[in-house]
Amino acid sequence: MVRGKELESRKWFFRLVSSRNLRKKLGKTLANGNDERILRATSRNMRKILCTI
Predict the structure, then answer these.
(1) 40 alpha-carbon distance from chain centroid
(2) Domain residue ranges of the chain, discontinuous segments joined by +
(3) Is 42 buried (19+), middle (13-18) or exposed (0-12) by CB count in 10 A?
(4) Among 3, 10, 41, 48, which is 20 to 30 Å from 25 by CA?
(5) Would you state the torsion angle of the CA atoms of residues 43, 20, 34, 7, taken in this order, to the nearest 10 degrees?
(6) C-beta separation of 21 from 28 below 8 A
């Protein structure tokens, strides 16, 4: 269940982030498989992005 929610939020995040460079960077980190670090970083970025909207 947690895994599914994680995937949903990640999908939503990728939809939100249309910047190709940021997506490329995230893609590289995702490929490296540093899941915890990614989630921490993406939540931090999401907060920044949501504040600017």
Answers:
(1) 9
(2) 2-52
(3) buried
(4) 3
(5) 60
(6) no
Residues 46, 36: Cα–Cα separation, whole Å = 15
Integer angstrom CA distances of residue 26 from 1, 8: 23, 16
User: pLDDT tens digit string along 21-53?
Assistant: 666 766 666 556 556 666 677 777 767 766 665
Q: How many residues in the chain? A: 53
- Output the 3-class SS for the chain: CHHHHHHHHHHHHHHHCCCHHHHHHHHHHHHHCCHHHHHHHHHHHHHHHHHHC
